[in-house]
Amino acid sequence: MELQKPGTDHKGSGLGPQHLVLLTLAIIVISLWLLLTPGGLLGKSDAIGYAVCHRIDLRSFHLGERTLPLCSRCTGMYLGALFTLLAFVVFRGKAGSYPPKQIQYVLIGFAGLWVLDGVNSFLSLFPSVPQLYPSQNWLRLVTGTLLGVSLTTMIYPVFIQTAWHSWGSSAIIPSWKWLFGLMGFLVLIDLGVLSENPLILYPLALFSSLGVLALLTLAYSVLALTFFRRQNSIVSVRELWFPLLGGLTLALTQVAIIDLLRYVLTGTWDGFHL
79 and 145 in contact (C-beta within 8 Å)? Predict the structure, then answer.
């Protein structure tokens, strides 16, 4: 069933002043970020991870001798977010409603496990404070992946309901079978990370950084639609470039500002050291 927000009228999709302003800003932000960050695909991935993650060596997986762009927990979170988003786009399309209550409770539980393991891991920084259990990178990876599923499931329907002129009322995760299928695929992704096989880990390292940009872009696209007063204006896939480019520009701006501040304070692109 397709739903349309009452009182919304579709606006023309031709290029106008708003589009030109956004294109100009996007070119400036993207060009400066590409120019001023470390070279190579992994270098750019490091710069993205640098803005959202501590990148502590001991709490990260490694590609040979090289620390991944994100720590174990963030690697799981952003891989989970990215592949959940891709599953929604490919298989759920314009479905814009939240899952049934029982599945929502499970997703809240996923977030709770992430908090529990994060607090337990934080306690390891204080030798005199007992931990609930020994902190391990595989647990950080798994709980991060679970949170990534929850975050994307929370944000995606907001984007759908804000962007599309009409959107589907069906649930983004319609059934337990669908959720189990998604989780089964993510188990394979996590096993690929745990293998630390360079042929598998290299693309997953890049994907994890793309997950950061994907999640931020999705969230900021809602803000871009609101700022330019384009809510519920999208009627075809080709028109999505406008809010998504706006979201990407804001996402890269955030990443760039945090990169700059952290580099000024630390003088290095490396992660923190325990």
Answer: yes
Bridge partners, 63 (sequence order): 66
Dist CA 184 CA 165 (whole Å):
33
Give the model's pLDDT for residue 175: 96
User: Residue range 3-24: average pLDDT?
Assistant: 66
> pLDDT for 92-103, tens place per residue?
999 999 999 999
Using CA atoms, how far residue 260 sits from 48, 51, 78, 270, in Å, is 12, 9, 22, 13
Cα dihedral across residues 77, 200, 33, 273: positive or negative? positive
Q: What is the pLDDT of residue 126?
A: 81
Contact call for residues 219 and 151 (beta carbons, < 8 A): no
pLDDT of residue 64: 86
What is d(CA 111, CA 145) in angstroms, rounded to the nearest whole number?
10
| pLDDT value of residue 7 | 46
Other beta carbons within 10 angstroms of residue 270's beta carbon come to 12
- pLDDT at res. 14: 57
**Close Cβ partners of 214 (under 8 Å, ≥ 6 residues apart):** 78, 81, 82, 85
Cα 42 to Cα 16: distance, rounded to the nearest angstrom: 37
pLDDT tens, 249-271? 999 999 999 999 999 999 888 88
Q: How many CB atoms lie within 10 A of CB 70?
A: 30
Give the CA distances from residue 194 to residues 58, 148, 173, 189, in Å, rounded to whole numbers and listed in that order.
15, 17, 27, 9
